Amino acid sequence: MPETTGTTGASYAAAGVDIEAGDRAVTLMKEWVRKATRPEVVGGIGGFAGLFDASALKRYERPLLASATDGVGTKVDIARRMGVYDTIGHDLVGMVVDDLVVCGAEPLFMTDYICVGKVHPERVAAIVKGIAEGCVLAGCALVGGETAEHPGLLGPDDFDVAGAGTGVVEADRLLGAERIRTGDAVIAIESSGLHSNGYSLVRHVLFDRAGWGLEREVPELGRTLGEELLEPTRIYSLDCLALTRTAEVHAFSHITGGGLANNLARVVPDGLRATVDRATWTPAPIFGLVGAAGQVERAELEKTLNMGVGMIAVVPQESVEVALATLADRGVGAWVAGEVTARESGAAAVELVGDYAG
């Protein structure tokens, strides 16, 4: 055997993985995870798997489970540079649960994955705090997660987050393209800002080309650039579920990467076309700033950013009034932005017309 006397053996800690710091992070995050629960959750944090009592699904005639997974992309770079870690979790939850609710599914639970270059316990706990708070806003439970330390692959301050969620919908209440009819109204639901898409373009334009810093006060925004870019993604799940209870809804579309036209097209059936009038709303100033600072053409902005619309609801005309009233009662801005008509052969499924108001 090799001689080891007088030498220091290798260890996990020497390789850069701090188990004690990881344990402290778990201790700090426990109080937040406890707040993100539902009656169906069995046990608590610390097990090898999260448990959810599926007998709750017995009330369904034919329950369909929906699943989604996502991350928040390069928006994590803004959080890292700002040193603000308790909002990025809201983004993560929004990106996952609002994909679930598009088909009419109620989000039940989520799990998260946090990858770091070095475990800073308070930082990891702040990220989980944001995820737990987002789950509360979404009405789902946070049943488990993983924090992985990857020294040598990520810098000491680098991190990334991802999550997966599960929801349930009654089969005969499944929403989607097959429900949409000629004459349906297209209701736009406002976003809270950039949400969590397009940050590679935004960072390139504002940092690399324009040379702006996160601390820059921007009069058009009424706050610093960093505060604007870190604005959390709006979580629509409870608003959308409320809409399905008060109004007839044929489909939702979550406006994420690819912009309004590409995402709405995913729920427009063959033979029909959704026409959306830009003149029905004014995008928030951040969208115009990105366009002007980078001389980005409107078509490029629209296929990258949400332009002020985070979710679309397609409803029959007779449901428009109650749908708008429901959203207004919940403090969510919404308006009729277009309608569904017959589609001519060779035409696009979604057409944006007119110019933005203001």
Automatic annotation (TrEMBL):
Domain PurM-like C-terminal, chain residue ranges per copy: 182-348
Gene Ontology MF terms: ATP binding; phosphoribosylamine-glycine ligase activity; phosphoribosylformylglycinamidine cyclo-ligase activity
BP GO annotations: 'de novo' IMP biosynthetic process; adenine biosynthetic process
Positions of the PurM-like N-terminal domain: 61-169
Superkingdom as given in the UniProt entry: Bacteria
Keywords: ATP-binding, Cytoplasm, Ligase, Nucleotide-binding, Purine biosynthesis
Name the UniProt record assigns to this protein: Phosphoribosylformylglycinamidine cyclo-ligase
Native source species: Actinacidiphila paucisporea
